[in-house]
C-alpha cells in the first residue's frame, strides 16, 4: 500500500502533554512530569524521568518508518556524527548514511541514552530532587526491562505508535529482545546482534570483577564520590581493561599486538613493556573521561539480572509467544566468546518454537565480540537485505524522502 509523501522535518516532534523536549549538549532531552513516573521491576519508581536522545532523518506522514537503535553497555545515544566528549565519530557511523543499511532518507532514526546511563538520561550521577545531591547508591537498581519501559515512554511521547525496526548489539540486543517480548504490537521488525537471552555465570563473573575494582578504589567513597569532589578513576579504568579483553579474540589480539614490545628491551619492572599492556591502559584511561563509575555498576548489574526465560518457568519460547508477527533477524560472530553463537541459536530456536519468523546469520570473523562495531561487510549486507525485505512488507517503498 502506497504511503503519503513524507512531511518536512520538524524536530523535536510534538510531545505528549506531560512531556517536554529541550536541547542539551547537542541532544534532545525528554522530561516526563511527575505523574508519568517510571515504574521499575524492583518496585521503586523514578519521578521526573529524563531521557536524552538524538534523531536523524524525517518521520513520514503516517509515522511508520521510525527505527530505534539500542546501545551497548559503555556506548550512548551518539551513534553517528561527532561525539561531544571524545570528539570521535559515533560508534555506528559506518551503518548510517546514504546507501547504508540505515539511511536518513528512508528512516527516522532514534537513539536514546538508557535510564541509569551518564550521558543525559536519569541515572546515579543525576541530581536527586529529594536531596539536591547526586543520587549515588540511593538510585534504585534498574533492569533491561526498565530501560525498555523508559524507551517506550520516549517513543510514545514522540507520537510514534509502531516502530519499523528496533536494532541493537550486545546489551542493545538484549533490549531488542525485550522490546519484542513486551511490546510486540509496537515492533514490526527486530534485529538482535551479538547478544544473548541471559547472562551466563562467566558473564556475571567478569562483571563482578569490574564492579569490585571500582568499589575497591578509595575514591569511590561508598558511591558518594561526587560529594567529595573526587572520582574512582583507577578502579573504573581497571574495570574497563578487564571488560575490554572480553570484547576481543585471541586471534585479533595476536594479529594486532602479539608479544611486541612497547620499546627496545625490557624495563625489568612493571611498566607497560608489551604493546598490549599499553593498549589496555589507554583504553582504561580514556574511558574514565566519558563514563560514570556508578553508572557502570548499575548497568552491569542490569545485564546480570537479565534472563528472558526466568518469568516463564525457564521456557524461552514462552517469552516470545506474543511476538509471532514480529520479523526477527539474529546475527552472531564465530569468534565472539562473550556471547557465542550457541546463545543466538537458542534465541532462534525459541522464536521458531513460538511461531515467529526469524532469519539467522553466523558471520565468520576473528574480531571477537566487538565485530558488530567494526568493518564487517557480511553484516552490512545482511542488514541491507533484511531491511529491504521488511520495508517492502511494511509498504515503505513509496512515500519516503528521495
Describe the protein's architecture and organization.
- With 402 residues, the chain is of the alpha/beta class.
- The chain folds into two domains: 269 residues, Alpha/Beta hydrolase fold, catalytic domain (Rossmann fold, 3-Layer(aba) Sandwich); 100 residues, Rna Polymerase Sigma Factor, Chain: A, CATH 1.10.1740.
- It contains eleven helices and 13 strands.
- It has a nine-stranded mixed β-sheet with strand order 1-2-5-7-6-10-11-12-13, with helices on both faces. A two-stranded antiparallel sheet has the order 3-4.
- A hairpin with a 2-residue loop joins strand 1 and strand 2.
- The longest helix has 18 residues.
- It is globular.
- The two termini are 18 Å apart.
Main β sheet profile: 9 strands, mixed
Q: Based on the structure, what is the oligomeric state of the protein chains?
A: single chain
- In CATH terms, the superfamily of the largest domain is Alpha/Beta hydrolase fold, catalytic domain
Strand content: 15-25%
Sequence stretches where pLDDT stays below 50 over 5 or more residues: 1-17, 398-402
Strand tally is 13
Number of helices: 11
CATH topology of the largest domain: Rossmann fold
What is the overall shape? globular
Averaging pLDDT over every residue, what do you get? 91
Order of helices and strands: EEEEEEEEEHEHEHHHHHHHEHEH
> What integer value in Å does the Rg equal?
21 Å
The level 1 CATH classification of the largest domain is Alpha Beta
Amino acid at each position: 500500500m502506497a504511503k503519503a509523501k513524507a512531511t518536512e522535518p520538524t524536530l523535536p516532534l510534538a510531545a505528549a502533554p506531560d512531556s517536554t523536549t529541550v536541547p542539551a549538549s547537542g541532544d534532545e532531552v525528554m522530561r516526563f512530569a511527575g505523574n508519568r513516573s517510571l515504574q521499575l521491576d524492583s518496585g521503586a519508581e523514578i519521578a521526573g524521568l529524563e531521557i536524552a536522545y538524538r534523531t536523524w532523518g524525517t518521520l513520514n506522514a503516517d509515522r511508520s518508518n521510525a527505527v530505534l537503535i539500542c546501545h551497548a553497555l559503555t556506548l550512548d545515544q551518539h551513534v553517528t556524527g561527532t561525539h561531544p566528549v571524545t570528539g570521535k565519530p559515533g560508534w555506528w557511523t559506518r551503518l548510517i548514511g546514504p546507501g547504508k543499511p540505515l539511511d536518513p532518507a528512508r528512516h527516522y532514526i532514534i537513539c536514546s541514552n538508557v535510564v541509569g546511563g551518564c550521558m543525559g538520561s536519569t541515572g546515579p550521577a543525576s541530581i536527586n530532587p529529594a536531596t539536591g545531591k547526586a543520587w549515588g547508591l540511593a538510585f534504585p537498581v534498574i533492569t533491561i526491562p526498565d530501560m525498555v519501559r523508559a524507551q517506550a515512554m520516549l517513543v510514545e511521547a514522540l507520537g510514534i505508535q509502531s516502530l519499523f525496526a528496533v536494532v541493537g548489539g550486545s546489551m542493545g540486543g538484549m533490549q531488542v529482545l525485550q522490546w519484542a517480548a513486551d511490546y510486540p504490537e509496537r515492533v514490526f521488525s527486530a534485529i538482535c546482534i551479538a547478544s544473548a537471552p541471559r547472562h551466563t555465570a562467566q558473564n556475571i563473573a567478569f562483571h563482578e570483577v569490574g564492579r569490585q575494582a571500582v568499589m575497591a578504589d578509595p575514591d569511590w567513597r561508598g558511591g558518594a564520590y561526587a560529594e567529595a569532589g573526587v572520582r574512582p578513576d583507577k578502579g573504573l579504568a581497571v574495570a574497563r581493561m578487564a571488560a575490554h579483553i572480553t570484547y576481543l579474540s585471541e586471534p585479533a589480539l595476536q594479529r594486532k599486538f602479539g608479544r611486541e614490545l612497547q620499546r627496545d628491551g625490557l624495563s625489568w619492572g612493571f611498566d607497560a613493556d608489551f604493546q598490549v599492556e599499553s593498549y589496555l591502559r589507554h583504553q582504561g584511561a580514556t574511558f574514565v573521561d566519558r563514563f560514570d563509575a556508578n553508572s557502570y555498576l548499575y548497568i552491569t548489574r542490569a545485564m546480570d539480572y537479565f534472563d528472558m526465560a526466568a518469568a516463564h518457568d525457564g521456557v524461552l519460547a514462552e517469552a516470545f509467544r506474543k511476538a509471532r508477527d514480529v520479523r526477527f533477524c539474529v546475527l552472531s560472530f564465530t569468534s565472539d566468546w562473550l556471547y557465542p553463537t550457541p546463545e543466538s541459536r537458542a534465541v532462534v530456536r525459541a522464536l521458531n518454537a513460538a511461531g515467529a519468523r526469524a532469519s539467522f546469520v553466523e558471520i565468520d570473523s576473528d574480531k571477537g565480540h566487538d565485530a558488530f562495531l567494526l568493518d564487517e561487510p557480511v553484516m552490512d549486507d545482511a542488514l541491507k537485505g533484511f531491511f529491504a525485505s521488511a520495508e517492502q512488507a511494511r509498504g515503505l517503498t513509496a512515500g519516503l524522502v528521495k
